[in-house]
Amino acid sequence: MSYVRSLIASIRVGWARDFGWTNPILGFSLKTIAPIASTMTALTILYIGFRNGVSITPEKFPYQLGFIIIGATLYAHISAYSWVPTLAIAEGKWTFVFPQVYVSTRSSPPYLAGRCLASFASSTVTSIASLAVAVVISLLLFGVTIPLVVTPLSVVLFGFALVVNIFASMGLGFLLGAYAVFASKFEWALPTYVSGILMVFSEALFPVTSLPHPFSDIGNVLPFTEFIRASRAVLLDGSVGSYFYYLGLSFVGGIILLVLGLLAFKYSERRARRLGVLDRKVV
Amino acid sequence: MNPRASIWLKTVYARTWVRTKSIYGEPLWVAVNVGFPFFTSLALSLLYSSAGLKSGIGFAFLGGVMVSFWGNVLWSMASQFNWDKQQGLFELYITSPAPISAILIGMSLGGILGTAPSAVTLAIIGWVFFAPPANPLWPLVAVTFALTLASLYAMGMALSSLYLVYGREADSVNEALHEPVSFLSGVYFPASLAFPAALQAIALVIPLAVGMDALQRTLFSLNANGVADLSLVYRDILLLAIMGTTLLFAASKALKILEEKGRRAGTIAVRLR
Amino acid sequence: MSLRDAKSTVEVENLRREFKGKDGNVLALDGVDLRVREGEVFGVLGPNGAGKTSMIRILSTLLMPSSGSARVMGWDVATQPEKVRPLISTASGAERAGYDYITARGNLWFFSQLYGLPSKLAHERINEFSEMLGLTDYLDKKFYTLSTGYRQRVTVVRAFINDPKVVFLDEPTIGLDVMTAMKIREFLTMQAKESGRTILLATHNMAEVDAICNRVGIIDKGKILACDTPMALKRSLGAPALVMEMTPPPDPASLEPLGKVDGVKGFTSSIDEERGVARIQVVVDSDESAQGAIDFARKSGMNLISNWRQQSTLEEVFVALVGRGFREREHESAS
């Protein structure tokens, strides 16, 4: 029970931290604006390619826009909450919260998981909002209607995919957190590199098959790639069969990543305790 | 030398030194700062390729270089005074005879010199490994680059006064400004080829937008015949000069007014403990 | 020249400062009058929330007064801050202000440049003051690697590097170990004596005031209640304080009438949990009043195990002025 209690308390703290704005509408707007803008950058590049290049036909263009909108917003969603553990540890060392959490009954995993889940909730809301707004802006700017499949079934399946992806993102979060436990500076460096790698290899903006071998294989084994493919399958292609295929791969990959992440984090904490750096302030 | 001028110059030098020493004293900073812009530029250049426009690779890497400076302006210029306030450094600046303008100029110069290694690294990687097709007019490139940086950092100085007032939300404002301004400025793409005229006109109030337009034209011409439209480049140069000067003046005035307000309200030394 | 004949470097007249709060205005300073002389170490002693920091901030040009006047070296702090700033410096115990990736020496040099010091002179002063404060071996270490005590030593060196005429220090030894605090106090005393600097020291550490201050102003609720040398203030209480020890510790309510005994100006109490003993310190104006307090304790059925007379402390002076100790006063302010 105390695991659950610790988890719930951490979710509440994480939510208050992410969304404890005196003006919630302002806070929500500020958090949504960045994913919208980065999505629009990618869409505009595609538009320029469409207008000036040779490989996109007018029939394919709306689909391609949809491909990028879904990929870019989900990439932003994954990035937003997978590095919350790093943030919580770095901030927690600065404020001495993290050492206090570490020495508590259930220690840090429920705390970091709770912070992650809170950020998942806030990021889901902002991602869906930014997806919707990006669709509207595309219509206004490019005069193109994105052929999204929005039915009760597709929405439910999409929501389910978001939930399944928690395993992979949390696993990644714990892996990154394993580094942050040691780091006394540049603790945010590894997450930014990982975010950058995900941008290239998670099929957020273009099919990984367009990358040369063996780089395309890297993309194919990432659970995030399968999650984005599953989301496209249901929201763009309307293909439930493909959806479950990709989701299954994402689930399996996510479980493996979560287990690896937890093991790495536990090992890292033990080592950090031996070295005496658990409460060393980050610079 | 006039004592006031001497303090001004010494302060500029000292603040520049602190900033560059912090970066160059930890070489890992370069690797850290290069990472995300590199992957972003790489992803977007691959997007250009998959969209059938290999010539766009240059825009992607130019964008990565300029985003390094834009990020530095937001996170290390605009927010700096707010963080200095948290540390108790800002009140030391106020109680010293050093003018705030000198501290700001020093921060800017330090920021430019500190960001240069990662920006140059990214430019070299892009140029050497991806060989973007380019048609540079180097003298104009140099002028537009210098003016763009000057205007950008002048904007950072002006923003720093705003952040002094709205300090607690600075991080969120930075996050909110970073991507939208990058998008509106056409950092990774030529806005003149994508945006309707009205949106382009609106974007021209942003120094980064004007600078990007000038740099893209002088590096990649943007015209089908491969020859840059110099009238537009000169327009951009003039706009940048006006913006830079105006923003510098506005920053100086705003900080004076805010210092006075802060002294009356008692908020100069207020910080989180 | 004695301190008495020295000119005033800090002059404060009827200084008031009000802050706008959510629950109404807060009066931080309520008509403060003060004169500090050249070469003097002047302590401003009071509990948290008394107005010490507000006064320091006004004098160091960080804050405007609501009314009244304050002059440093003859210049008005409100209207002529640019004349004041080259002549002063300020340091706070709450600050650990410095750039983390720069060495201590680099940080000190940087701040010297804000005052236009030639680099050679700056380094000479850095070396000289660091030697005095035992900081020399740490000068070339990055700021973030220094412990709290050494960062504070850097802060103190920084406050003197520009050769200020007046130095404002706000709790400079708070949270420091005994040795570091002692070193800093020795340094401050030397700077005032040998260089003729005026040092205004805001603190609630009475031992510090006793040790180094030429004069002390006791402040509470924005008002200066008394201003004199520490010795004169303690003597102003008249008789030495009475200390009574009782076991078991009496109920606090039963002690209340002690304050009404003839000649008793106030009292503070503390409990030694390990020994199960209460210690009551009573500020009295005469030996007769002291006896009266002892008689009260006995008549009230309290088990008095010992009593003695001791030299008054500045806290007892404060108690005599306000009727409460520092701890109780801070408790009141908090609630």
Short structural description:
Chain A is mainly alpha-helical. Helix content of chain A is 79%, strand content 0%. Chain A has one domain (2-275).
Largest interface, C-beta within 8 A: A-B, 45 and 40 residues
Which class of secondary structure composition applies to the elements of chain C?
alpha/beta
Number of domains of chain C: 2
State the distance separating the first and last CA atoms of chain A: 36 Å
**Portion in helices of chain A:** over 70%
The average pLDDT of chain A is 89
* β-sheet strand percentage of chain A: under 5%
Number of domains of chain A: 1
As for the CATH topology of the largest domain in chain C, it is Rossmann fold
Largest sheet of chain A: none
**Quaternary structure state of the chains depicted:** heterotrimer
Q: Report the radius of gyration of chain A as a whole number of Å.
A: 20 Å
Based on DSSP secondary structure assignment, what is the total number of beta strands of chain C? 14
Radius of gyration of chain C: 22 Å
Keywords:
heterotrimer, B: 273 residues, mainly alpha, C: alpha/beta, Rossmann fold, Alpha-Beta Plaits, 30% strand
Q: What would your notes on this structure say?
A:
The complex is a heterotrimer of chains A (283), B (273) and C (335). Chain A has 283 residues and is mainly α. Chain A has one domain. Helix content of chain A is 79%, strand content 0%. In chain A, 49% of the residues are buried. Chain B has one domain. The longest helix of chain B has 36 residues. Chain B starts with a helix and ends in an 8-residue tail after the last helix. Chain C has 335 residues and is α/β, with parallel strands linked by helices. Chain C has 2 domains: 226 residues, 3-Layer(aba) Sandwich (Rossmann fold), CATH 3.40.50.300; 100 residues, 2-Layer Sandwich (Alpha-Beta Plaits). A 6-stranded mixed sheet of chain C has the order 6-7-8-3-9-10, with helices on both faces. Chains in contact: A-B, B-C. The interface between A and B is large, with 45 and 40 residues.
